[in-house]
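Students often ask why we bother encoding 3D structure as a string. The short answer is that it lets us treat folding as translation between two languages. Here is a chain of 268 residues written in the first language.
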Amino acid sequence: MTLANPLARLLEWYVAMGADEAIDLDPHDSSAPAALERRPPPRAVPTLAAPTPPAPILAAPLVAPAAAAATARELAERAQSLAELETAVRSFEGCQLKRTATNTVFADGNPAAPIMIVGEAPGADEDRIGRPFVGRAGQLLDRMLAAIGIDRSSAYITNVLFWRPPGNRKPTPEEVAACLPFLWRHIALVHPKAVVMAGGTSASTLLGRNEGITRLRGRWFDLAVPGLADPVPALATYHPSFLLRTPARKAEAWADLLSLQTRMEGKA
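And here it is in the second language, the structure alphabet:
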């Protein structure tokens, strides 16, 4: 169909030629220099400033193992009470485990009790709650002690280390050395009638021996404690967590408990 209106026919021709937008009343040659000059300048794209990097988190410098042990000895020797010793332990920065732990786990139970139990280190539950032997191993320990008429009111419980090793791994010699002066002072201040060394780390640390716990368990030793005139009887036995993994050893642990009971009855 042919449009009668000339303007309509012109518009039809423009559309046929590919025009799809009306810019001005007069046609323009977009390739001509004048047309290029009339084009509006391109809009400036705002540039975003580079983000300021966060300030680096400066960690406390690492303490050399020898310096850490020396500081621990100095702090431990100053403590004249369990309260002062606990304050010293909580303020101590020489053990790297403190950086990854949630809580400092000092002790639990009755410090006036005749029996002091020394384990290895806090686990996940102990780290979360802040008390030693409160997880599955602690529950087993409670049942073991109850079998010979002992509960936490008649025992005092602590560990070689006051902070949990990541993943419950075995403590390193440097970590043990950093905490050992506090442990010796801990035993001296409590001055128990007997120490129960629960597990290989506890026994080898306090006795200074390399034998495994299977060779040491069930045996009594005279533990020379710095600051005490007389040695403290010390019994090596399995750690409750080991018994959870190896139930067949519970009979040997029961024999150790009976030995402890007999020893304590003789000291009553």
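Translate back mentally: Residues 119 and 146 are 18 Å apart (CA to CA). Keep this in mind for the problem set.
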